[in-house]
Amino acid sequence: MLVRFADEWATFLPAGALEPIRGQLGLTYVQAAWVLVALPAGGFLGTFFVVAADHVSRRLLASLGAVAYGLALVAFGLAHTLPMLLAAAFIWGAASDAFIHGCEVALVDLAADDLPRALARMNGWAAVGDLLGPATLALGALVGFGWRGAFLGGGVLMLGYAGWIASQRLPPPHPSGEARRPLANVLTILKDRRVLVLAVVLGLFGLLDEPLAAFMIAYLERARGLGAAAAAAPVAAMLVGGIAGYLGFERLSDGRRGRTAVLAAATMVCALPAALFLPVMALQIAAAAAFGAAGALFYTTLQAIVLALRPGQAGATSAVVSTVGMVGIGFPALVGLVADVHGLSAAVGLYAAIPVIVLALTATGLPPPAPPPDGADIE
Question: Staple partner for 214: which of 15, 241, 270, 354, CB 3.0–4.6 Å?
Answer without folding.
Answer: 15
